[in-house]
């Protein structure tokens, strides 16, 4: 069976989309080809790497990249993980399924380091739940 191509899209491809890519690779590598990209490329957020590592998923080798036409052409499903990316998502080729997840940005969290990391962990866990649901739905629909 052909692997579906998933593309997680965010503004800067630094945090939420990186987490989604990591979870999807971790949970669905057998059935899915997974990428993430941003409208811009801001580099990976070290806190995102740290909280994913805590959960047993290493995203340190993933790249922060800007979305390309080739990425959009090969995608079967595009998931925007922030409002800005949803509003500024390039026009998708016909037949591509688009899903929007309005995730809050943990990189905007304020407070102590513990409070900020708690926001990153909450986002990590929400992303995992959403990715698990998406992968299940996509597997069930095939």
From TrEMBL:
CDD domains: LMWP_ArsC (cd16345). Residues 4-137 form the Phosphotyrosine protein phosphatase I domain. InterPro entries: Arsenate_reductase_ArsC, Ptyr_pPase, Ptyr_pPase_sf. It holds the Pfam family LMWPc. SUPFAM superfamilies: Phosphotyrosine protein phosphatases I (SSF52788). Its EC number is 1.20.4.4. It is an enzyme of class 1 (oxidoreductase). Keywords: Arsenical resistance, Cytoplasm, Disulfide bond, Oxidoreductase, Redox-active center. One of its GO terms (molecular function) is arsenate reductase (thioredoxin) activity. This is Arsenate reductase (Thioredoxin). It comes from Thermithiobacillus plumbiphilus.
């Amino acid at each position: 069976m052909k692997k579906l191509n998933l593309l997680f899209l965010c503004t800067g491809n630094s945090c939420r989309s990186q987490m989604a890519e990591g979870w999807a690779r971790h949970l669905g590598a057998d059935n899915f080809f997974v990428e993430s990209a941003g409208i811009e490329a801001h580099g990976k957020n070290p806190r995102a790497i740290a909280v994913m590592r805590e959960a047993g998923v290493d995203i340190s080798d993933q790249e922060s990249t800007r979305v390309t036409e080739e990425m959009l052409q090969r995608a079967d499903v595009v998931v925007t993980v922030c409002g800005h990316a949803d509003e500024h998502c390039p026009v998708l080729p016909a037949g591509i399924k688009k899903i929007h997840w309005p995730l809050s940005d943990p990189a905007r969290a304020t407070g102590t380091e513990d409070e900020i990391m708690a926001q990153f962990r909450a986002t990590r866990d929400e992303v995992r739940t959403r990715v698990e649901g998406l992968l299940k739905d996509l597997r069930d629909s095939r």
